[in-house]
Amino acid sequence: MSKSNEQRNSKISPTSSSLTIADLLISDVFKKNNINLNKVKTELSNEKKQMIRNVVNDLTKQVNDYVENTKKKDSK
């Protein structure tokens, strides 16, 4: 990997990258299906909001674990 790639990658944390990708994918799906994000936010029940938070937290943990394992393998 070139130095410029390493510098760019070091500025973006895995968590923020994952969230950005997820945000883009969700936005595209909403746009394709003519879904108004503000309307969806107000219509979601607290239970569904919590379920979404749990999924995001779980995915964030999985990504962080993967990154840590990759770092450990790379340092060997």
From TrEMBL:
Domain of life: Bacteria
Keywords per UniProt: Capsid protein, Virion
Name of the protein this chain belongs to: Spore coat protein
Species assigned in the record: Metabacillus bambusae
